[in-house]
Prior knowledge:
- The chain has helices at about 40-65, 105-115, 120-125; strands spanning about 5, 15, 25, 70-80, 90-100, 130-135, 140-145.
- The protein is α+β, with helices and mostly antiparallel strands.
- The chain has two domains: about 1-40; about 40-145, K homology (KH) domain (GMP Synthetase, Chain A, domain 3, 2-Layer Sandwich), CATH 3.30.300.20.
- Helix 1 (about 40-65) packs across helix 2 (about 105-115).
- The protein is globular.
- The chain starts with a strand and ends with a strand.
- The mean pLDDT is about 95.
Amino acid sequence: MQVELNRVDQDYHFQATGSAGVVVNIDGSPEIGGHNAGARPMELLLMGLGGCSAIDIIQILKKQRQQIDAFNIKVSAERVPGEVPSLFKSIQIHFTLSGPLNEEKVKKAVDLSLEKYCSVAHILYKTATIDYTFEVVGTEATATK
């Protein structure tokens, strides 16, 4: 796996390109001189966590012939204040799925992703707790690791 980053301006804006050729903009916050022209690096980690777990969950549910009509993921995190580096100390993920889904199968898929398969989660578990909830057709369940 390889990615490439190219600086766009004289500040912190970069364009990163992955092996599929898709460009992702990365920038620093205005507080340090960035221009809000891209995601922050720590935001990209959270996006990676959401994306990694989503791929796992979809794969598992497809194998079980579950139809997902819509899928939304919200990820929030707290960092260790006043430390350099300021690592994540806690992460919360909420999955919202809709469709003719079996809630027990969704729960199993979410648990398998975050406890076994998601590589990004296993990296982040080294410094943070990850709590997750999911919702299917208005029903909510909670799990914590």
